[in-house]
Amino acid sequence: MKILVTGGAGFIGSHIADACIAAGHEVVVLDDLSRGDRRNLPPKARFYEIDACDPKVRDIFLSERPDILNHHAAQISVSDSVRDPMRDAQINVLGTINLLEAAVAAGTRKVIFASTGGAMYGEIEGAPAGEDSPRLPISPYAVSKISAEFYLGYYRRQHGLRYTALRYANVYGPRQSPHGEAGAVAIFSTAALSGKAPRLFAARQVGDSGGIRDYVYVGDVVRANTTALERGDDDVFNIATAAGTATADLYRQVATAVEFKDPPEFAPPRPGDLLRSVISYQKAERVLGWRPETSLQEGVRKTVEYFRETANVKRETSPTP
Question: What pTM value is reported for the model?
Fold first, then answer.
C-alpha cells in the first residue's frame, strides 16, 4: 500500500518511514524540515518539503492518492505551547484539519495519528492511566492533541475516514533531537558525551529528582504504528511501558552508559510540566497484540551508542583548521 508520513524526516516519523519501506510499502514523506533532517529521509521515499498547514498539501494528496496517512508532523514542546498557544493550535489543530480535508479529497482510507498519553491525562496518581481515564490537560499542547482526536471522530462519522490514534508516553531513541526542551535522553546523552553536565529540571523545587515519566523506546513505537495499518480501527491506544522513572534516575542511566561522572546542573521547574505521568498499555496488548519489548536500560544504551557514533562521524568529517 501507499503510506504518506507527515513529519517523516523527524525523529519518530523517519523510523516509521524506514519500517514501512522495509515491509514493502510505497512511502511518501511530507516535512517542512523545521525540526526534521534530510539525512533521516529514506532514499526510497518520495519527499515533499511543505508545511502541514499549507493549502497545497491537497494537491500532493490528489497526485499521490495515499491509502494511509500517518500523521506525525506536530509542535511537540509542552513549554513552547504554554509560551505560544496560538502557534501550537495553528500547527496541531489547523494543520491536522488541513491534512484530513486533503485525505478525504484523495480517497485515503485511514489515518494513524500520533497523539499524547504523556500530557493527555494530567497528573496521574496511583495506577497507570488507561484510555478511559479522565483527560485533564494542563498545557495547550495536550488540549491541541485532544482536539485533533475529536476531529478524527468527526471525519470518521462525516466522511467514513477510519483512524487509529496512538497516545504516546515519552518516546526516546536514536535520531531524537537534543536541541530544545523535549527529549531528555537525547539531551542528557549529547551533553554527557561532550563532557558537559546537562540541566535537570525540578518537579517542585531545585535539587529534587524531577518529574516521573513513562519512557517508551522508538522501536516499540514503530511496531505500534505498523500494527495499526491493519488493526485498531476507530479507536485510541496508549503506547507506553506502565513504568515510571524520575528524571534523576534517567540521568543516572544515561551517565552510566556514557561513563560520565559529573552531577547534573539543577534547574527550576518548567511551566506546563507534569509531576507524574505513567500510563497503561493493557488495551494495546489486548486489541493490537502490542506490548513494549525494550527495557529502559537497553533503550538508553542504544540511544547513547547512536549519539556516540554521530559525534564520531562529525569529528571525522570536520575540515582541518
Answer: 0.94
Residue-wise pLDDT tens digits, 244-267: 999 999 999 999 999 999 999 999
* Opening angle at CA 100, ends 236 and 23, nearest 5: 65
Q: Which domains does the chain have, with CATH numbers?
A: 2-172+216-239 (3.40.50.720), 184-212+243-277+294-317 (3.90.25.10)
Q: Which amino acid is at 275?
A: L
Phi, psi of 85 (to 5 degrees): -60, -35
Count of all residues that appear for the chain in the document: 321
* Per-residue pLDDT reduced to its tens digit, 283-296: 999 999 999 999 99
The x, y and z cell numbers of residue 114, run together, are: 500520533
Residues labelled catalytic: 141
Give the least confident one: 10-19, 78-87, 281-290, 309-318. Answer: 309-318
